[in-house]
Amino acid sequence: MIEIIDLEKSFKGQKVLKGISLSVSDGELMAIIGESGGGKSVLLKHLIGLLKPDRGHVLVDGVDITALRGRELDRIREKFGVVFQGSALFDSMTIYDNVVFPLREKTRLGSGEIRERGLRALEDVGLRGIEEKYPSEISGGMKRRVALARALITEPSIVFFDEPTTGLDPIILHSIHNLIVSTHRKYRFTGVIISHEIPEIFDVADKVAMLYGGRIVAAGTPEEIESSQDPAVRQFITGSTQGPIKSLG
């Protein structure tokens, strides 16, 4: 479904991605982990087509999106759903209007079908009945659920999650992770999750890749990553201050 080939990107002479290669299979949930500021969000922006690499390719269903512009890129993006960090809801819109926004913008569906799909999307994330509330009237965890409903409403084949549980307490964090798993089972989308939630993300993902020093230093099943002997991987998953990753604390 997604293939990243020798991806490189620099900003003002500082190389952030140093030859990333990674494959995400159809229907797979792939978690990309790594230290803060290590390039995970930069990589995600390449997968969505928001950034162009200095070198390398990103293939989606065999199509190199790094070579696309304008409407051609927009057509590929119609396959995408995105759960943004912090939810990124429109404060001036009701929950219902936030959820159905992609349908109104990208489709010619009638109001009746849009409403049916909007209410069903809210029901899928356990929020039926709050559609007339505004984002300021609901909790942080509920906002993440709304963001997921919005991402899924167009029935995308690929969903990108940018730190979907950052700042949530452990109980709500597990609730959102469980929701990601249950909606993945229902819709069978291919998912890429940017996360630093260790070890919780290991219970969610089918595969895990660790980004360190601008490169993927390990990729495999959660069990394979947990048993990795790579020093950076061991340090990151154990939270040790000893190792190649330099703490700012």
From TrEMBL:
Keywords: ATP-binding, Nucleotide-binding, Transport. Residues 2-238 form the ABC transporter domain. PROSITE patterns: ABC_TRANSPORTER_1, ABC_TRANSPORTER_2. This is ABC transporter ATP-binding protein. It comes from the Bacteria. It comes from Candidatus Nitrobium versatile. GO terms for molecular function: ATP binding; ATP hydrolysis activity.
